[in-house]
Amino acid sequence: MRITLERSNLLKSLNHVHRVVERRNTIPILSNVLLRAEGANLDMKATDLDLEITEATPAMVEQAGSTTVPAHLLYEIVRKLSDGSEVLLSTNPDGGSMTVQSGRSKFSLQCLPEADFPDLTAGSFSHSFKLKASELKMLIERTQFAISTEETRYYLNGIFFQTIEAGGDLKLRAVATDGHRLARADVDAPSGSEGMPGIIIPRKAVGELQKLIENPELIITIELSDAKMRFTIGSVVITTKLIDGTFPDYQRVIPTGNDKEMRVDCGSFAKAVDRVSTISSERGRAVKLTLSEGHLILAVNNPDSGSATEEVAVGYDNEPMEIGFNAKYLLDITSQLSGDDAIFLLADAGSPTLIRDTAGEDALYVLMPMRV
Prior knowledge:
eight-stranded antiparallel β-sheet, DNA_polIII_beta_cen
């Protein structure tokens, strides 16, 4: 293999693919990136056996061929080369090493044979549809913060996607929960997604997708089966295994009888929560909301460091009540709201609260209260 390509193009593609590679691997080939030169492109592929990213970048191919080299090492070398330079990649005749040359810099990297590199993309997909990048990004951003990090409840370690009938329309819905809070977002279901199985996309794949959606105007092709899902985002293809588990019936935890409505300016509420929570202990982070007509008092009491209160004007005309929430969870949810006001639908101090965005009905949040 012997190819020349722009350092900027090589770096951009390596930046996309090398993130998948784990720093520590018991299987040596998984530390490597597969490089395949043919036609006028260099194709790169990296995998951790659950997630695979491939990308094609333009190159001047003098001699076609393929090899695998350490992903993080190649990325660091290319990152440190001069801006605007050209990079020559060439393998020696026996394929045991690859030379990286740019200007006066020359590196030799150990190679492993392409034949050892695993392939995740085998198998066919039952459903295929196209979705605007901005819509996929919205579904991910509105729900990602609620993904559970508790490994024992592995079926909550991702975002659940399904198509569902809502208000007479077919919607593509994303849901995430960690048992303390739940986030749900909808977009109009694209053609081809009808009847797709409910699937759970793992947290790592969700994070990579979010980073790869750089152009919101792009149309993304999505293909899926019961076990795998593939996203084509421009020249990047990301394939992920799905979480093999059953997502809980989230509809059961969304309250329907919450009749006490509080409407509050989102920005001033978030700043007030942030200010009073400065004094709370990292472990508890509980903030007490005391509601009366047109009036809200936020209070935090920490036996070790003191107390804090702040008053906020709200739209509320029900009987007075007190309820406690985790301050971090409140801030996570309010940061996702795009409208000026947040609407809290409450029942009592021990029941889950429903939070809606005034900007639209496409997202809702459920938050479990805390004892304060």
